[in-house]
Amino acid sequence: MTAEPRRKDHAGHRARLKARFALEPLALADYEILELLLGYVLIRKDTKPLAKNLLKRFGSLRGVMDARQDELESVTGVGPGLSVFWRLLREFTARCEEGPVRKREELATPQAVAHMARRRLTGCPYEECWVALVDRGNRLLSWERLSRGTMEHVFILPRDVLETALRWRAWGIILVHNHPGGSTWPSQKDILLTSELRRLSPHMGVRFIDHVIVTEDACYSMTEDRLFR
User: Fold this and answer.
1) What's the CA gap between 174 and 213, in Å, rounded?
2) Claim: this prediction has a pTM higher than 0.70
3) CA torsion, points 212, 92, 72, 51, in degrees to nearest 10?
4) Every domain of the chain and the residues it spans
5) I need a surface site. Which of 27, 41, 176, 207 has the fewest CB within 10 A?
6) What's the pLDDT tens digit per position in 102-139?
7) Which of 22-36, 172-186, 210-224 comes out lowest in average pLDDT?
8) From CA 8, how far away is CA 135, in angstroms rounded?
């Protein structure tokens, strides 16, 4: 007998929240923005408690967005449907971040490369290796994942990188991979791979520009560090 009034109450609250958002988005608190977003999946539920719990658990809207799937699903109220929606939202955001670069804007610094990579790799519990292929003006031709590994290592052969570069007729290569553990320092295998690519690339008519290691809040450039002087 009481379920219907409660449903109408939170439906009315959501309508008022949407009206406030339409009038002035910045007037809404972070939990209210998250509450509205969750409401598009949990249509018949009061999403305020879940929004507040997610912010308490992950600290910020960015923290919620970057949370791993298993971390999200450990929060009471996050079911399979919401988990899939969150993966879709992250994919949408990642493609939006990549969008300007697809207009062939210049990747001029390791920080610019890391910013692009972080949308893909933040919160990823395992190492992944990606390659940015650029033209003579350091403008992006393609941004591709080469390999997915474990929490501590990703296996990649120089051939995999060079074949991809030749397929795109790229002028230059920027190799990128993440360290989920948080340290930006390259492993011995990272250094050996980079050294081999630097040796082989000129013979293939391709310039090896950099190998960038990305964490959630930092990046390391082997070229900027002059590791191969």
Assistant:
1) 11
2) no
3) 120
4) 3-94, 104-221
5) 27
6) 556 578 899 999 988 887 887 788 999 999 999 999 89
7) 22-36
8) 57
